[in-house]
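User: For my dataset I need records formatted as: sequence, then C-alpha cells, nothing else. Please produce one.
Assistant:
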Amino acid sequence: MSFDFDQVIDRHNTYCTQWDYIADRFGCDDVLPFSISDSDFAVPPEIVEALQNRLTHPLFGYTRWNHDDFKTPIVQWFERRGGARVISDWIVYSPSVIFTVAALIRILSRPGDSVVTFTPLYDGFYGAICANDREIAPVYIASANEGYSIDFDALYMACSDERSKVLLLTNPHNPTGKVFTKEELNTIVSIAKRTNTFIISDDIHRDIILGDIAYTPITDITTRNVALACSASKTFNTAGLICSYAFIPDTELRSSFLYELKNRNALSSASILGMYAQMAAYTKCDYYVNELSRYIYSNMSFIKTFIDQNIPRVSFEVPQGTYLAWIDISNLNVRAQRLQIACVEQGKVGIMSGATYGEDHFMRMCVACPQVKLTYGLTGLLKGVQSL
C-alpha cells in the first residue's frame, strides 16, 4: 500500500490550532505556520473508515476503555514494531500524555520538590512541572550537530539532590530529536536507582525513527520505578480525538493514577472516537508509519541540503527521530526571538523560536508537511536571515 504525503489539504476554518489561530503565536494571521507539532497529512483511510462505521451508531455515551480491544493492539504494536514486551495489565487510559505526566508528578512528589529533565525541553512540560509547584532541575542535552552528548555526571548530581523525586525523559527527545540508545537508557536507569529517582518517559514520538538508532522503551530496561506515557496521536495526526495511554508496571502506583483519573478529575470515560481511531491505527496502519518515516527523513534531508547551500552560517543535521527540525543559528549572532520576527515580517513564515523550549540559539520547525510547503518555509527562513 502507499499513501500520498504530497497531498496539500486546506486546514483553514476547521478550528485548527496551527492554521486558524496563527496570530496567537506570531501576532498576525498571514504567515505559513511550522509551529504546533501536529502534521499536515491526512490520517490513514483505515482510521477514517473506523470512525465512519462508528458514526453510523447514533449514541455516544460514557465509554469504557479497560478491555482487550483497547489494550491488545497496544501490546502487539510494541511487540511488532521493536520487539518490546508489554504486559496488558500495565496499560491505563489517559486523555493526554501531558495529563499523564502532570498526574504522576503530583502523585510521586510534593510541592517544592524538583523534576530533573533534559533541556531544551518541550514547552508543555514547563507548565506540567511549574504550575504544579515543582521546580525544574535542568541537565543540558546537546543537539544533533553537537553529537547529542549527555553529561551523565551532571545528571547524577541533579538526581542526587534530596528534592529530586522524578526524572522526566522524552524518547525520542523533543525538540532535539535524539533517540536514546539501550546503553544510554541503562546508564540513566542506573543513576535513577542509585539516587532513588522515579523515571517518567514520554514516548509520544516513538514511531518517527529516522536514523540507525532503534527505539527502546524504558520498560524494556526496567519495570521498577518507571512509567511510560504514549499515544498514537502524533504518528497518525489524531490529537483532536483525545486518546492516550500509559504503562505503569507498579500495581500501587497504577491504582493511585486511576484514582487521580477517575475520582479527582472525572476523566475515566474514554473518548469514543479517539479509542476507535487508535485501535484502527495499531491494527491496520503499519504501512502508513513506514512511509511516513521515509517521507519525514526526505524532508529533513531536503532541509539540510537547502541550508548547507543557501544559509551556510546556519547549522542543521538530520535528527535521529521526530518530525521536528532543531536548527542551530548560533553563528548568526542573533537571538532566536529576533529571527522569528524577521521570518514572520520578511519571509511570511512562522517558525518557533528555540527560546520557547529553553534554548535561545535554535529554531524549531515542524516538518510533517508536504514538501511544497516545506520549500516555501525554507525560502521564508532564508528571507528572514537575509533581512537581519
